[in-house]
C-alpha cells in the first residue's frame, strides 16, 4: 500500500464540496437513497419509516449470491525483457547481505538503481544495522540520478522533515518526477497533493489523470479515488461514468474498507448501477466484521429493514452497540435499541462483547 502523503478523506471532502455545483438533474438518482455515507463525524441514519416502495424483505443469501459479480480483467502483466540484476535478485530471495555486497560498489560508482537498493536495505535494517541518515543520503543520490522509486521515497522524507530538512518545493518536484516516470504510489500521492494545493474543480481535474494511471497499476486508494470522481464530477464522458462502480468494486476487492462501505451503499441505493440489496449487504457485513465503524452502523439498519438479509433485531442491536462504543451516535438506532425486549438487549450486548474483528 502507498504511504498516503495527504489522506484520501481530503479528496472526498473536496469532491463533496464540489458536488454542490452539480445540476439538480445530475443528482436526482440520489434523492431516494436508503443508505448514506457520512462525510463528517456523525453517521447519517437510514431514512426513517419503511423501506423503499416495492422492496420486499430478503430471505437471506444464497451460495451463488455470495460468489459476487465478475469484475473487468486487470491489465495483463508485461513480459520483462531487460537485463537481470543480481543484486536485486539476491534481495528478492532474502539474501540481504549478498545484495548489499553486490549493490554497494555499483552505488559508489553512481548507479541509481544500486543506490536505491542500498538505501532500501539500510532504511529497513535488513541484514545490516538500520541507518536512516545513510539511507537518506543514498535515496537522495539515486533521486538525483532519476530513479523513480528513489524519487518517491526521498520526496516522502523531504515532506516529513525527520531525517532530512523539510523542503516542500523539492519534495513536490521529486514526487511529480516520480509520478511522471510511472511510479504508481507517486502517481496517487501527487494526485493528493494537487487536490490539496488546488481546492475545488481545478485540483480534481489536475489530479484525475494521475489517479487513473495509479489505479490501472493496482493501487486501491487510487481506484477508490477514480470511482468517487467518476461518480461526482460533471462533464465526464458517459463511458467513464459507467466505470465508477467497477472501479469501486476493484478497490473493495483489494481490501480497502472505505471502498467496501461505499460499494455497499451504492448497491443498496441503486447508485451508479442497479440496486442489489444482497451484495450490498454482503459488502457491508465484510467491512463491519473488519472493524469499520460506519459499516457497523449501516449494517444495523440493513438488519432492521431486512435489506439483503433476514430481519434480526439482536444482530441489528449488536452492530449498533459496537458502533456506539466506537463513538458513532445514531438517535434512530438508539430509539430502536430501547424499543426491543430486555432479553434481546442483553443478547445483543453479549454478542458485541464477544465480537472479534476479522484481519
Order of helices and strands: HHHHHHHHHHHHHHHHHHHH
CATH topology of the domain at 36-61 and 255-359: Serine Threonine Protein Phosphatase 5, Tetratricopeptide repeat
CATH class of the domain at 36-61 and 255-359: Mainly Alpha
The 3D shape can be described as elongated
Describe the protein in words:
The chain has 359 residues and is mainly alpha-helical. It starts with 7 loop residues before the first helix and ends in a 5-residue tail after the last helix. It has a domain of 131 residues: Serine Threonine Protein Phosphatase 5, Tetratricopeptide repeat (Alpha Horseshoe), CATH 1.25.40.
Key features of this structure:
359 residues, mainly alpha, Serine Threonine Protein Phosphatase 5, Tetratricopeptide repeat, 62% helix
Amino acid at each position: 500500500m502507498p504511504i498516503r502523503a495527504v489522506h484520501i478523506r481530503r479528496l472526498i471532502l473536496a469532491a463533496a464540496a464540489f458536488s454542490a455545483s452539480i445540476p439538480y438533474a445530475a443528482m436526482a438518482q440520489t434523492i431516494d437513497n436508503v443508505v448514506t455515507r457520512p462525510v463528517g463525524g456523525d453517521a447519517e441514519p437510514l431514512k426513517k419509516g419503511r423501506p423503499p416502495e416495492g422492496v420486499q424483505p430478503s430471505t437471506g443469501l444464497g451460495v451463488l449470491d455470495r460468489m459476487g459479480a465478475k469484475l473487468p480483467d486487470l491489465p495483463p502483466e508485461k513480459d520483462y525483457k531487460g537485463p537481470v540484476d543480481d543484486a536485486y535478485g539476491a534481495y528478492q530471495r532474502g539474501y540481504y547481505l549478498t545484495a548489499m555486497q553486490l549493490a554497494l560498489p555499483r552505488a559508489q560508482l553512481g548507479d541509481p538503481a544500486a543506490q536505491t537498493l542500498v538505501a532500501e536495505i539500510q532504511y529497513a535494517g535488513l541484514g545490516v544495522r538500520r541507518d536512516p541518515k545513510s539511507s537518506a543520503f543514498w535515496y537522495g543520490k539515486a533521486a538525483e540520478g532519476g530513479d523513480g522509486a528513489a524519487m518517491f521515497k526521498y520526496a516522502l522524507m523531504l515532506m516529513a522533515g525527520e531525517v532530512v530538512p523539510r523542503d516542500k518545493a523539492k519534495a513536490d518536484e521529486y514526487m511529480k518526477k516520480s509520478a511522471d516516470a510511472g511510479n504508481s504510489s507517486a502517481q496517487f500521492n501527487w494526485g493528493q497533493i494537487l487536490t490539496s494545493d488546488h481546492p475545488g474543480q481545478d485540483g480534481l481535474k489536475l489530479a484525475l489523470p494521475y489517479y487513473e494511471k495509479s489505479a490501472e497499476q493496482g493501487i486501491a486508494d487510487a481506484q477508490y479515488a477514480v470511482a468517487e470522481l467518476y461518480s461526482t464530477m460533471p462533464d465526464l464522458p458517459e463511458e467513464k461514468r459507467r466505470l465508477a462502480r467497477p472501479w469501486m468494486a476493484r478497490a473493495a476487492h483489494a481490501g480497502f474498507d472505505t471502498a467496501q462501505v461505499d460499494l455497499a451503499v451504492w448497491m443498496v441505493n441503486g447508485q451508479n448501477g442497479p440496486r442489489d440489496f444482497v451484495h450490498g449487504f454482503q459488502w457491508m457485513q465484510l467491512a463491519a466484521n473488519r472493524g469499520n465503524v460506519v459499516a457497523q452502523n449501516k449494517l444495523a439498519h440493513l438488519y432492521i429493514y431486512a435489506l439483503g438479509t433476514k430481519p434480526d433485531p439482536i444482530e441489528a442491536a449488536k452492530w449498533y452497540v459496537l458502533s456506539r462504543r466506537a463513538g458513532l451516535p445514531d438517535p434512530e438506532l438508539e430509539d430502536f435499541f430501547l424499543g426491543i425486549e430486555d432479553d434481546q438487549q442483553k443478547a445483543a450486548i453479549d454478542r458485541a462483547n464477544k465480537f472479534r474483528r476479522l484481519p
